[in-house]
Specification:
By secondary structure, this protein is of the alpha+beta class. 47% of the residues lie in helices and 26% in strands. The strands form two sheets. It has a three-stranded mixed sheet.
């Protein structure tokens, strides 16, 4: 038994070391975020959202997912802003209080987070309006309320 446990421990350490080396190599291969396309950024956002959902599960407040997803995206080296004002213009007057995007990643992709049982058509329209007003081309509607997050992710495009 002693040899078996020693072998398992040694293999476990080797396995963890190999994983760390692989993770480091993977992060070294990651593209410069400033040169990433909207689709490449969206892939990172979806991957990070899946990780957050796996760690926290469904059913929490939207603000919790926003904070944790922002943290995860920062850890991936991406520039992330939270609660970004989106201005509207009416009769030649600009209003900054109109809307707020949950998150904007690399000034290119707008993930709109929800934690609801059912995503409604108004949620799609809301994100498309944000994209048009902010002059962004790609948004992700992510519903953390889904049991399987892959069923709660929708791409919304504005002239992409």
């Amino acid at each position: 038994m002693g040899t078996s446990n020693a072998r398992r421990t040694r293999d476990g350490i080797r396995g963890r070391c190999e994983l760390l080396i692989w993770s480091h190599a993977k992060s070294q291969r990651r593209k410069d975020p400033k040169k990433m396309t909207e689709n490449e950024i969206a892939k990172e956002v979806v991957d990070a959202a899946l990780k957050v959902h796996k760690g926290l599960g469904p059913g929490l407040l939207e603000s919790v997912y926003e904070i944790v997803l922002t943290h995860e995206l920062h850890n991936r080296g991406l520039a992330v802003e939270r609660q970004v004002p989106i201005s509207i213009e009416y009769n030649g007057i600009r209003f900054d209080e109109g809307f707020r995007a949950d998150i904007v990643v690399e000034d290119k992709v707008v993930p709109e987070l929800k934690s609801v049982e059912i995503v409604k058509p108004v949620h799609h329209k809301q994100l498309l309006t944000y994209l048009r007003l902010a002059d962004k081309r790609l948004g992700l509607l992510i519903n953390f309320g889904e049991l399987l997050l892959k069923n709660g992710i929708k791409r919304i495009v504005n002239n992409l």
